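Feature request disguised as a bug: please show the residue count (88) next to ribonuclease H in the output. Example input:
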Amino acid sequence: VTLIQYVDDLLLAGQNQDDVRNESIKLLNFLSMQGLKVSKSKLQFTEEEVRYLGHWITKGCKKLDPERVKGILSLGAPKSKRQVRQIL
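Example output, currently without the count:
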């Protein structure tokens, strides 16, 4: 089981769902003992596909969240250098 952390976002991943579930429980218990709280609304517990840092991750595949793609496509093509800078 692998733990990936970016600031306060945590992701546990592994080949076996039982192992991931057991390690997730250990991690949640550890965080609780340290006085840290986990948002139940953000918790994705042993899912096949998860949203993490604006990406959908599933079995070795990573893709952009469709909502983010929709937002980018709705901007339209920039017509000036200033508009390019605003997008970036």
